Amino acid sequence: MINFNFENYTKLIFGKDKELTVGQEVKKFSNKILMHYGGGSIKNSGLYEKIVASLKEANVEFIELSGVKPNPRLSLVREGIELVRENKIDFILAVGGGSVIDSAKAISLGANYDGDVWDLFEKGKNFEGSCVPLGVVLTIPAAGSETSGGTVITNEDGGYKRSTGHRTMRPQFAIMNPELTYTLPDYQTACGACDMFAHILERYFTNVENVGLTDRLCEGAMKNIIENAKKVLENGNDYAARAEIMLSGTIAHNDSLSMGRIGDWASHDIEHELSGIYDIAHGAGLAIIFPAWMKYVYKHDINRFAQFANRVFDVEIDLKDLEGTALKGIEALKNFFKEIGLPVTLEDANISDDRLEEMAEKRTENGTVGNFVKLNKEDVLNIYKIAIK
Amino acid sequence: MINFNFENYTKLIFGKDKELTVGQEVKKFSNKILMHYGGGSIKNSGLYEKIVASLKEANVEFIELSGVKPNPRLSLVREGIELVRENKIDFILAVGGGSVIDSAKAISLGANYDGDVWDLFEKGKNFEGSCVPLGVVLTIPAAGSETSGGTVITNEDGGYKRSTGHRTMRPQFAIMNPELTYTLPDYQTACGACDMFAHILERYFTNVENVGLTDRLCEGAMKNIIENAKKVLENGNDYAARAEIMLSGTIAHNDSLSMGRIGDWASHDIEHELSGIYDIAHGAGLAIIFPAWMKYVYKHDINRFAQFANRVFDVEIDLKDLEGTALKGIEALKNFFKEIGLPVTLEDANISDDRLEEMAEKRTENGTVGNFVKLNKEDVLNIYKIAIK
């Protein structure tokens, strides 16, 4: 275990009808806010009206900025920053999933920064100011952005998808009602399950030794996602399973599972090129990239991959063939992704192999990616090639 | 899973030499503090001098109150409250284990309350003010008090050991260097391991259904304590194992493992009578009481006890004899406690059966204890009797 600091101040407000408390939660921070959301879905579901009623009841004034799309765009972030500045807004409420929350976080960071917000991507941690405080009503369990201190934004100028973070970027509260996720399409539910699973995998594959507690916590959380992802796809109105998945998305990415570890994050980086260019859902991209990454790197630590196979997928450890045990775990993961309806190859997602070289080049132009194994352009290209079919 | 709120703002500062940063951490809150600790051990180990040097370097003025004993006393808390008030102190630094931290928390609560602090025990949550902020340098991994929002104090007048909590009672930071635990006597190390294990057990045995994620997290954390408690007792200077145990004590009691659950807490209540009267270490008392409680209540939910046996102690599930599986788990737990050198009966701890009736009476004078099974005086007495030998 390496030395670490851990701090996560986000208050979780979890359960049925909790969105009705949003007005009183916001009121603790502000009387005038920016309400940020996507588009029609929260209006169709009736959530929009509930939020508005709760804000009005608490006498909270709000300005709206809608239009956030999956893989949220820098241009909308810039628009939000202008709105916050012009209207002297001191709190942002994000109503939606990871894209909406990430967009809100980028606004909250940029609004208090003198220069252009894109400057801060990949170097935002050095920003000495504070983000505008924000709160969340979560509608999609996936990204874990509701308690994380990071954001991922796509710059349309060049298709760059880049991340940044700040210690003051974690939301002040996250309201999480599993019932709000009943209406999610199956594909989006599955993408979400893959995204949270991948957040744990990124933390799990580490070179840091003696991380037994967080290993066990990671393994338990992964087992539980496997069990409940299948249940919610069988019955979208299964409150218990929806609750398990929603809470898992938070635990996967609130940094408690990475205490004292160094995560990998190559698969996320490699996937970002895919979804930056092809606009595939991030979770679907991860279902393609992660198994390919695993096949490429597993020899670096066969024991860890065998442990993964055994403890997460109940693969019996074959001491005479640990490599076989490890490979069975990778195959089991791939099968799980398939079983919940995700693509596991570029072919499955109708992505051609035309631009693999370009993506590998762009991804590594600032250096290698990943920590478990440091990958250069050729490595990244090889992983894309493994992912073809 | 039931509706819940979760908030834990304590910043963990974990690793080698981290106690040297205490001055700069305190300085963020205050220039004049109360430093609260036990007695000789932090002076013998050299920790006291390091803390003093760090505070002085940061120009933090401090007043000292030492003398905290295991099962911390109300009289010293009252003394601390006077000191804080007289000296207009606005931050308390606890250097020690759970007893010191609990004593500091009681001072931090009472200093801002107009009446006598004992009024607030068992009804402190209704206190509308705020606690004086506090920070911790942890020296004993056990109670989990370094990030919890509760405290347990013994009133010498009558031997009442009672708890209270407050939403502002969590420490602002907890500095945790596993090296500081190298010098703990084996018995204290074992008591600590039992205490943290019991904190998980109290959360694990619940009537709330569909708590799969937190079940898995609890089970993983328990498995890891079993593994590492043995290692630290074999080699007290094993940094990796000491780190696992230290972090486990925090995770066990930071409330993340009880999200959406209702814990039991009868065993803690029943044990508090023991250590309130006999001054036995809390962890040792729990090693006696918990297996007895389990034997008394397991029929209430044999499946849960069988799951515990299987997932925590690798007992194979016998579908034709789930009760046998459940009982093997209880036996395995008892053996684990024995193996690390703890008493598992009142006889082992040289406690006679003279006052069992009195203890059962006192414990239940305000009503039943426990949630998994609600226990009246007769039940509590039966559990004490099971614990005799």
Automatic annotation (TrEMBL), chains A, B:
Bilayer-crossing regions? none
Transmembrane helix in keyword set: no
Q: Which GO terms of the molecular function aspect are on file?
A: alcohol dehydrogenase (NADP+) activity; butanol dehydrogenase (NAD+) activity; metal ion binding; methylglyoxal reductase (NADPH) (acetol producing) activity
Q: Which residues form the Fe-containing alcohol dehydrogenase-like C-terminal domain?
A: 189-387
Source species, domain of life: Bacteria
Cleavable signal peptide: none
Domain (Alcohol dehydrogenase iron-type/glycerol dehydrogenase GldA) ranges: 10-178
Query: What does the record list as coiled-coil region(s)?
Result: none
**From what organism does this protein derive?**
Clostridium gasigenes
Q: What is this protein called?
A: Iron-containing alcohol dehydrogenase
Q: Which UniProt keywords apply?
A: Oxidoreductase
Q: Which GO terms describe its cellular component?
A: cytosol
